[in-house]
């Protein structure tokens, strides 16, 4: 199996090391793991692509490339250039340092990379490690992802609906809970949730030279969330698995809007 890995934390992120180990175990002795990751951290860029300027790409080692662009740019770089002659069989994005559950999904570059791979017709999975006081005390905060990731990905590859013939191919979002590997209680298939009262916001900051800047801040990651959701599962020490597709249509509302056609 040929696996492409990328992330949004950057080419030197510890989570990418964990992702490489997971991918190597999945690929096996006869497989290949290719890395095309952002040269610098790209957290929060979502599904952004560098449409208005070129992307510099550099080979750092065999099968290891850094691109000065977004995670989605990295997927495009791999498919269109680095792995053009032999595209990947699977794209893995992560392991992100911090969760990409709930409202975080909409901002995540980790998700953006998996979404771009799905748009390109490739099987893709985003992996993120919830961080908290318990993971902070661990020698390896990615322990849960390292231990449980390979088995869960194999199960998804064998059993999940990849819907390859659909207009918008499915991809999967995995979030590991903020605990050690032994503390993981199991897996929950869950919809994307929403933390109560949590929104991103801009905070003004006045620099010593008098210039005014804004910091973008996130809210509490432990706030109560939709029962049965991805966030709720993670907060109860379960791994969450959420099927997603790059389609923002609210299909449930289509029929109610048909009257507009008649008007």
Task: Give the topology.
Layout: E1 2-6, H1 14-27, E2 32-38, E3 57-61, E4 64-67, H2 71-82, E5 90-97, H3 109-119, E6 124-129, H4 133-136, H5 143-159, E7 171-176, E8 186-189, E9 201-206, E10 212-217, H6 230-235, E11 238-244, H7 259-262
Parallel strand pairs: 1-2, 1-5, 2-4, 5-6, 6-7, 8-11
Antiparallel strand pairs: 3-4, 7-11, 9-10
Could you please describe the fold and organization of this structure?
With 263 residues, this protein is an alpha/beta fold. It has one domain: Stationary-phase Survival Protein Sure Homolog, Chain: A, CATH 3.40.1210. The chain has 7 helices and 11 strands. It has a 9-stranded mixed beta sheet, sandwiched between helices. Strands 9-10 form a two-stranded antiparallel sheet. A hairpin with a 5-residue loop joins strand 9 (201-206) and strand 10 (212-217). The model has no long low-confidence stretch (mean pLDDT 96).
What brief labels describe this structure?
263 residues; two-stranded antiparallel sheet; 26% helix; 7 helices; nine-stranded mixed sheet; Stationary-phase Survival Protein Sure Homolog, Chain: A; alpha/beta; 24% strand
Average pLDDT, rounded to a whole number, is 96
The best one-word shape is: globular
Instruction: Give Rg in angstroms.
Output: 19 Å
SS class: alpha/beta
How many H/I helical runs? Answer: 7
N-C termini distance: 54 Å
The tally of domains stands at 1
CATH structural class: Alpha Beta
What is the assembly state of the chains in this entry? single chain
Beta percentage is 15-25%
The major sheet is characterized as: 9 strands, mixed
| Major beta sheet, strand line-up | 3-4-2-1-5-6-7-11-8
Low-confidence stretches: none
Say which CATH homologous superfamily is assigned: Survival protein SurE-like phosphatase/nucleotidase
Query: Element order, helices and strands?
Result: EHEEEHEHEHHEEEEHEH
Helix content: 25-40%
Reported by name, the CATH topology is Stationary-phase Survival Protein Sure Homolog, Chain: A
List how many beta strands DSSP finds: 11
CATH architecture: 3-Layer(aba) Sandwich
């Amino acid at each position: 199996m040929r696996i492409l890995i990328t992330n949004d934390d950057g080419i030197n992120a510890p989570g990418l090391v964990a992702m490489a180990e997971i991918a190597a175990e999945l690929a096996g002795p006869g497989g290949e793991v290719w890395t095309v990751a952002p040269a610098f951290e790209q957290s929060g860029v979502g599904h952004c692509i560098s449409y208005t300027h070129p992307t510099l790409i550099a080979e750092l080692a065999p099968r290891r490339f850094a691109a000065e662009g977004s995670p989605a740019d990295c997927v495009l770089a791999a498919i269109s250039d680095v792995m053009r002659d032999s595209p990947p069989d699977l794209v893995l994005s992560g392991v992100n340092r911090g969760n990409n559950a709930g409202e975080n999904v909409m901002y995540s570059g980790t998700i953006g990379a998996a979404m771009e791979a799905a748009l390109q017709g490739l099987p893709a999975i985003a992996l993120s490690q919830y961080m908290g006081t318990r993971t902070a005390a661990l020698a390896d905060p990615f322990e849960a992802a390292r231990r449980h990731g390979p088995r869960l990905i194999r199960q998804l590859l064998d059993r999940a609906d990849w819907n390859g013939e659909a207009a918008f191919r499915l991809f999967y979002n995995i979030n590991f809970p903020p605990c050690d590997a032994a503390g993981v209680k199991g897996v929950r298939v869950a919809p994307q949730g929403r933390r109560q009262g949590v929104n991103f916001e801009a905070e003004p900051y006045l620099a010593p030279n008098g210039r005014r800047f804004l910091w973008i801040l996130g809210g509490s990651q432990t706030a109560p969330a939709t029962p049965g959701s991805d966030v709720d599962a993670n907060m109860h020490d379960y791994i969450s698995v959420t099927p997603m597709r790059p389609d923002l249509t609210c299909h449930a509302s289509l029929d109610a809007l048909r009257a507009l056609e008649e008007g």
